[in-house]
Specification:
Oligomer: single chain
Largest sheet: 8 strands, mixed
Number of domains: 4
Mean pLDDT: 86
Shape: elongated
CATH class of the largest domain: Mainly Beta
CATH superfamily of the largest domain: q2cbj1_9rhob like domain
Distance between the termini: 88 Å
CATH architecture of the largest domain: Sandwich
Helix content: 25-40%
Length: about 775
């Protein structure tokens, strides 16, 4: 099968000069002097008495884990002397160090124009049994690219320095008589094996790459530029088939090494990364493209089997251990754990960019951009590198025997210069809005419109944040293009609104009209899919202040628009839950609506308050479970001398009328066992309703099949009817026995008592006139 343009590009870049991830150099110890505070001059080669003096002024070495600095002899067991206590000199040392750094620069494949500098880090002493488990060095400076280990000559066994990268491993042993220098990239996992005899003494340095004058790069640029042109002009073809798509918006070329945000720069790339990135950058410029550096997270899922895997286990031929929890999931810890698994085929891979630099290599921003399979390429497959984490999933019946592996890689991201705005905007919505505003401010409204329109294919799913609404409103107004402006505002939700947006809302409404804004906010309010979100109404706490600010901005129609939208949402839920059981769920949901309803009433005008009251009067008495908590909230919030919000007195009177009617109801007759209830209209609910409506009948024996019994059970439980139900498992079908319980009477007594108590509170707080002194029923 013919390779795609991006795949050919990866092959071309892979032909760059290979570089080492580590290198070694030995040199005579003559002419090199060492002095340690508290010990004095130290003679080379080292002898045991001198080393013991070093240990006397040393301390246990620490190590880093994430942001923490730890001391754990089970991870790192060695002695450490800080660099300011150590002096390394002598007539031969400066020349030796300069020559060694130049040698390592070339061996590690760093750019010819760069210059290495060695910054002292520590003097380390390893005695018998001491070691350092596999780890990676943290990059302690933006310019740090690696580590230099200078082993002082001493007689010892063990204590080898083992360095790994991309599936390779190299072991370095120190000399008994000569200086041994080993340099390696900081992202290479390495360890010090336990010392078996004698002492291993080393000086460690941070390797810093100094900036140099740029050099003109040479290479097969024409072929690479042609590959880029083909990539950006040919339809994209997804890996698993389907219709061809629009040409890709970017190309992501994965580099081999790991970098930190601070350490990622064109002049600090490591090994083959430096030459490959320079070639790709030059080819991109020739093809009319821009380039940035990025940090990528790569996840690969492989078909895999564990060591000793027996396929017959999948078919249940061996008994499982009953004490095991889970079925085959096993986390893999540490480098090298993948060796316990044999990889089969690659099932899936995901690449996400989390940070990138600016096109000039400066600054940088946090992003979240998923890279599609037809947008990426690499010269070194991730499988040839060392993952930082792995997870094995054993066979689970219909899936499993997979190994997930995660990698951190840097990348060069390329896009055509004419599509640069959309390519960057997809990953950086904040940047896109700032750039659009800058163009509008400069008077380039046509350019801003064209750039904004290029965002349309992906803007809704680009991760726009609520805090960007203010910028989006200003850009939308400045574009003077209603369709494009609506597209920019589409991703937001109503809960992003705050009073500080009032002026900008008023401005876009003035520019495009309130009906236009109504269509935009209809999308902000969302539909039925958002109905049950827990914090859906939190924004209404700011609604009175927002509406007041809008009226001050001479935009009362926008305030009315938002109030109407908020009330429409609350009204829909109020009607739903007022007629929905069971009671425990209904009460919780209606009480949740009490604060939003209060804020709407506080901000509403007389016309909307009239609509709200008409709707409340049409609801069943269960609406009290929303209105009474609302009135209690209002009473608690009111300060002395402050007038109550308009409309609350009317709500209080409505509640008083309903409570009074409930409290005055005559007690149920002792022989009245009727229950008012309406079912779904099916034949079963008709039979159940006839039984419930009977004054004298308490028991119903009902031969009923399983599905029928389930339906009746669900109706009784959902409505919390005072009816017990049992199944007599004799004959066919079984008999469902329904019995009305005394709870029918006790519930009504409790309801009248609670209504009387609520009415007394209501009258005392809200100064209701009329009959309030109702004695609770028996």
């Amino acid at each position: 099968m013919a390779k795609s343009a991006r795949e050919r590009l990866g092959v071309l870049l892979g032909g760059s000069k290979a570089a080492e991830f580590s290198a070694r150099l030995e040199a005579p110890a003559d002419g090199v002097g060492l002095e340690v505070a508290g010990v004095g001059p130290v003679r080379l080669p080292l002898r045991a008495p001198q080393v013991k003096k070093l240990i006397a002024v040393a301390r246990p070495a620490l190590f880093g884990r994430g942001e923490d600095t730890l001391s754990d002899s089970s991870v790192r067991d060695t002695w450490q002397i800080p660099p300011d206590h150590v002096t390394l000199g002598g007539p031969a040392w400066p020349t030796l160090l300069d020559g060694a750094l130049e040698y390592f620069r070339g061996e590690l494949g760093l750019p010819a124009q760069s210059r290495l500098r060695a910054e002292p880090h520590a003097l380390l002493v390893y005695g018998k049994g001491q070691f350092f488990l596999p780890h990676q060095d943290s990059e302690k400076d933006d310019a740090m690219v690696g580590t230099l280990v200078l082993s002082l000559p001493s007689a010892h066994t063990g204590g080898e320095l083992v360095i790994g990268h991309a599936g390779q491993s190299r072991t370095y042993r120190a000399s008994k008589t000569e200086l041994s220098l080993v340099a390696f990239y900081a992202d290479c996992p390495h360890e010090v094996t336990p010392v078996r005899s004698g002492y291993r003494v080393t000086l460690t340095f941070n390797l810093l790459a100094e900036r140099g004058a740029p050099e003109r790069e040479a290479g097969p640029l024409d072929d690479m530029a042609h590959c880029l042109e083909q990539h950006f002009n040919a339809p994209a073809r997804p890996r698993y088939g389907g219709q061809d798509l629009d040409p890709p918006r970017r190309l992501v070329y994965l580099l081999d090494h790991e970098y930190t945000q601070r350490g990622l720069g064109w002049d600090r790339l490591k090994g083959a990364d430096a030459e490959r990135a320079a070639l790709l950058r030059a080819a991109a410029a020739q093809a009319g493209c821009e380039t940035v550096l990025a940090l990528a997270e790569v996840k690969e899922t492989w078909d895999a089997t564990s060591a000793g895997y027996d396929p017959w286990d999948d078919y249940g031929y061996e008994e499982e251990d009953e004490d095991e929890e889970g079925v085959g999931a096993a986390a893999v810890d540490g480098a090298g754990a993948d060796e316990d698994y044999e990889l089969g085929e690659l099932i899936d891979d995901e690449i996400t960019l989390g940070w990138w630099t600016g096109p000039d290599g400066a600054d940088g921003e946090q992003i979240s951009l998923y890279v599609r399979d037809y947008e990426s390429c690499a010269s070194t497959p991730s499988a040839d590198l060392k993952p930082y984490d792995s997870q094995y999933e054993g066979y689970m019946g219909n899936y499993g025997n997979t190994l997930d592996r995660w990698y951190r890689r840097a990348a060069v991201v390329v896009w055509p210069r004419e599509r640069a705005f959309a390519a960057r905007g997809e990953a950086g919505s904040r940047w896109a809005l700032e750039e659009l505003q800058a163009r509008i401010t400069k008077g380039d409204r046509d350019g801003a419109r064209a750039a904004a329109e290029s965002l349309a294919p992906f803007w809704k799913g680009s991760g726009v944040q609520p805090g960007q609404l203010k910028s989006a409103l200003r850009v939308a107004e400045g574009l003077q293009a209603p369709g494009t402006a609506a597209m920019l505002l589409e991703p937001f939700r109503i809960d992003a609104l705050t009073p500080e947006h009032a002026d900008d809302l008023a401005a876009v409404a003035k520019r495009y009209g309130v009906p236009w804004l109504g269509q935009v906010t209809e999308g902000w309010f969302g539909g039925a899919q958002n109905r049950f979100e827990e914090h859906r109404y939190d924004w209404t706490e700011r609604l009175p202040q927002l509406c007041a600010a809008l009226r001050s901005a001479r935009s009362p129609a926008v305030a009315q628009l938002l109030l109407t939208g908020a009330w429409t949402q609350v009204d829909g839920e109020l009607r739903l839950w007022a007629e929905t059981g069971p009671a425990e769920i209904r009460r919780a949901q209606l009480e949740r609506l009490s604060l939003p309803l209060l804020r709407i009433l506080e901000a509403a005008d007389a016309k909307l308050r009239g609509r709200i009251m008409a709707a409340l009067r049409s609801c069943p008495d269960t609406v009290l479970e929303c209105l009474l908590p609302m009135l209690r909230h209002a009473a608690q919030e009111q300060t002395a001398g402050e007038p109550r919000a308009a409309g609350l007195e009317a709500v209080a009177r409505e509640c008083g009328d309903r409570l009074g009617a409930i409290a005055r109801r005559a007690p149920r007759a002792a022989d009245d066992w009727s229950v008012a209830w309406t079912g779904c209209g099916c034949e079963l609910c008709g039979t159940l309703g006839a039984f419930l409506g009977s004054r004298s009948r308490r028991t119903l024996e009902w031969p009923l099949a399983k599905e029928g019994r389930r339906h009746v059970h669900s109706r009784i439980d959902t409505a919390e009817l005072p009816v017990g139900h049992q199944t007599r498992r004799q004959g066919r079908p079984y008999t469902l026995v329904l019995t009305k319980t005394e709870e029918l009477f006790s519930r009504e007594r409790a309801t009248r008592r609670q209504a009387g108590a609520d009415l007394t509170w209501l009258a005392s707080i809200w100064n209701l006139s009329g009959e309030v002194g109702v004695e609770p029923g028996p």
